[in-house]
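Co-fold these.
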Amino acid sequence: MRKSRRERLEREGWVVGSVKEFLGLSEADAVLIEMKLSLSRSLRERRRRYGLSQIELARRLHSSQSRVAKMETGDPSVSMDLLVSSLLLLGATSSDLAKSIRGEGRNKNGRAA
Amino acid sequence: MRKSRRERLEREGWVVGSVKEFLGLSEADAVLIEMKLSLSRSLRERRRRYGLSQIELARRLHSSQSRVAKMETGDPSVSMDLLVSSLLLLGATSSDLAKSIRGEGRNKNGRAA
DNA sequence: ATGGGATATGTCGGATCTGACATAAGCTCA
DNA sequence: TGAGCTTATGTCAGATCCGACATATCCCAT
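Predicted complex below.
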């Protein structure tokens, strides 16, 4: 019983069913990149809202101005972990991050989440 | 004028105002770890929903069984990028990820987002 | 019990990310 | 103009993460 569904699915091979359930490799990265860009925008927005320069923020993060710049410009060398932990340090809540990740980055005031 | 707020904030020094606007370093990682654990649970849930073994999933991800195990057990060597891109490949949407990150991981059916 | 599939844990070389530094480019104000 | 502040870009050594492999543990069916 527990196995019936499983075996059925396995027989189907690579892609399960006709509805595409799995994203292709490239499509998945595209979405990931979008998410990171959205987080980048949120970071810049949040930093500016607090009137901090990149250097000042870098100090709080125990990082450097150049890395902050890379975070905000969406440099590919920046991980999601770094973006998220930086946002958290700037006081973003899980809900704020969720909004940003969801792509509802900009609200009616033109602010990033 | 654009500067007045900024200068006022800067004068305050490390923490702006009496309301805590910035998270401490350790508090921020705690939240980050929580988020990653939530993503881990989502991954396991999603894999099982498709009736895949870790080996089968690893193949789709071009990864290995041991890394999948580490992802699902919340091993500290696993990045958020890896968790998120794996979930995306398994067909999770941005909204699914947002829910998981927000900590609303489990719904009324006991399912992870 | 035991054999086999599934999952967990430890380790390692290579890949990627990080902070730091240097330097360039943009802005604003005197 | 140019001094001073801010942000962007390139580079690099060290830190961290990744896939892979080996091995251990767990869980069922037999």
